[in-house]
Amino acid sequence: MKKMYPFKSLIVLLHLQALIICLPQKVSAQADTAKITRNSPAFIPPAVQRWDDRVMIDLQNQRTPKQTGFFMFLSENVLYGDIGIPAGLLVGGIVSNNKEMRQNAGYVASSTALSYGFMLLIKHVVKRPRPFVQNIQITPVYRASGTSFPSGHTSSTFATATALSAAYPKWYVIAPSFFWAGATSYSRMYLGVHYPTDVGAGIILGTGSAAAMSFLKK
Predict the structure, then answer these.
(1) I need a labelling partner for 92 at 20 to 30 A (CA). Which of 27, 136, 145, 203 fits?
(2) Cα–Cα distance, 73 to 3 (Å, whole number)
(3) Is the pTM for the entire model greater than 0.85?
(4) What gap in Å lies between CA 35 and CA 12, rounded to an integer?
């Protein structure tokens, strides 16, 4: 019976990861939205803020229906990667009785969960308004709720991609992983819901979370 404990621990970890990502999102978004106004002070220095605004306006002027559909798909389905990848590793490890794969499932899930937890904390402390709230010249594809800094989609996808690539350092793992993370991150700017600096902070947070949890990697 003792051999079953690692399985149970990983399954519990995946459940916790899903709860951390899915449940607090609506609550914190509603609370943060209620607290910010168009006149809220920007966390980013004025010169960087102006650059952020210019990038966002340039991106919105280059939108096409085909690109918008693709980037909306990426943003709306981010959880399939964040939760599906470690879950797939866990199932594969159980079916093939592969201890290394099961341990790597825990590493990827822990990295993503850690990045998400810190992202919520930073959002709560910083409370940077969304681009379309801060600057009325920015028109989003849809009006995301909550605050802007850092990008949660970016931090979670880069945590997942970095951890997966560290666990399996092969080009056919690294290339699609970071393409997915990079495209998802770009989508947040393209859709008008995150500034470039939000995305940059998300990349640092995501990769840093994977590095911090690397002791779990087999």
Answers:
(1) 203
(2) 40
(3) no
(4) 34
